[in-house]
Amino acid sequence: MNTQYEAVIVGAGFGGMGAAIQLNRLGYDNLLILDRESDVGGTWHVNRYPGLAVDIPSATYSYSFEPNPHWSRLFAPGEELKRYAAHVADKYDLRRFMRFGAVVTGAEWDAEHAHWTVSLRDSAPVTAKYLLTATGFLSQPRKPDIEGVDTFAGAVVHTTDWDDDCDLTGKRVAVIGTGATAVQLIPEVAKAAAELTVYQRTPIWVSPKLDFRVPKALQRLFAALPLTQRIARLAGTAVLELMMVSGVLHYRQAPLANKLAEQWCRAHLRRQVRDPELRRKLLPRYTFGCKRPTFSNDYYRAFGKDHVHLETSAIRRVDESGIVTADGNRREIDVLLLATGFDLWETNFPAIGITGRNGRDLGAWWRENRFQAYEGVAIPGFPNLISLNSPYSYSGLSYFTTIESQMRHIDRLFTAMRRRGATVFEVTSRANEAFLDRMTDRIGDSIFALGRCATANSYYFNPHGEATLLRPSSTVNAFREAASFPVDDYSYA
Ligand code: NAP
């Protein structure tokens, strides 16, 4: 049986494109990139709700090898990210590998032929020597299990499925959720709606957003002298690194950094919200950093408007035309906006059924043996699989840091494999266990172990209460290890 492709990559977002660029650099040209959506960009293709913008400085939230001198703002709006994704796909000639509307239903390791068989919902399975999953962390929208949502007669819109025809002007609108998405959405909805009620279960830490328009002259300078933008990128990355390492990961050694960040957010709340009762409701009760904080200059201000209401009583049910809360109040609404986020652990680890050697099911194995992945990319029992969105894979605050350190890992691994004349790799259990032990130790110093996180409802924690999403090391460490891990941590055949 012939193997059709050298590699199949699942996902045409920035992670999948980074993997494809790296494989191309290594000389692999027979690739297939599958994506269930209709175009490139992953998150930035799917999300297009009002207010969408990146909240990591754009010079940092982009590939270091493909700087874009034309970001219009320090924090670019969503459609610029989507355009950037299209530009990368075109410039690196990746579209020839891409197949859209391709829903992958599962993948199975075929030991006899030493390749992966990838099943698709609407077409014949495909086979590939290597499987790289780049399905994202936030790609399975969560519909809330609130009684009666399906009975609501008006429009119900999840933020990942924004309906451009749904005009909110003059409408009575409800938003459920106060995560990063809601923080961006709410000020925009407040501008159009006649009444807006925000249903908050857990308040979120909000930092001021030091955003500004990038002057055309500076954009021209970045284009003419790329080194200047590299310096801007380095500065952005250094600030994020400092925030992550000192404020979150090394809480035991440097609790002050975290406390300063918390004070910074408290001061923002005090400045923008005069009403003490409203302020009390908006103030988080968990330690800063347990959950991903947000950045906004107009979120709190929105609640100062007469037609915007914050509801903190739990939702009891939704009926045909309104929402009833636990305190017995009922509010009539025309449109229900669900900013309820994503299922991570339940449906995203892994996002597709993956069956490895000897029938090992990745999802079941993770649940029975703790969530784990060597260097955030490889799992014993799964030969020739690179799982880019794995436990401990997310490093730093910009996703591009993660992507580029994973590209380095792929480079080193495939180079080592080919030097041995091999075509199959598999991480050893010994190396995987040592990595897991090291990550577990390091988490002990972090805010996740030492902070008050129980009430944060944070997706950084898996259902067993372990914070296994973020890699608890500096990005410098992640990059260094990606370029220098012992190649004998893998076996080759
Ligand atoms: P999220 O952070 O998970 O927030 C979901 C919100 O919905 C939470 O407030 C949650 O309350 C609430 N919720 C969920 N189910 C509910 C229910 N049954 N009843 C009442 N409330 C419910 O999701 P998100 O806001 O979409 O953000 C997810 C991530 O996307 C962010 O952390 C960030 O990484 C990313 N993001 C990034 C940007 C950017 O600018 N780069 C923008 C948006 C999002 P609880 O907290 O109580 O669970």
UniProtKB/TrEMBL annotation:
Which InterPro entries does the entry mention?
Answer: FAD-bind_Monooxygenase_sf, FAD/NAD-bd_sf, FAD/NAD-binding_dom
Residues in domain FAD/NAD(P)-binding? 6-223
* Species of origin: Saccharopolyspora taberi
**What PANTHER family does this protein's entry cite?**
FAD_NAD(P)-BINDING DOMAIN-CONTAINING PROTEIN-RELATED (PTHR42877:SF4), L-ORNITHINE N(5)-MONOOXYGENASE-RELATED (PTHR42877)
An example of a Pfam family matching this protein is: Pyr_redox_2
What protein does this entry describe? NAD(P)/FAD-dependent oxidoreductase
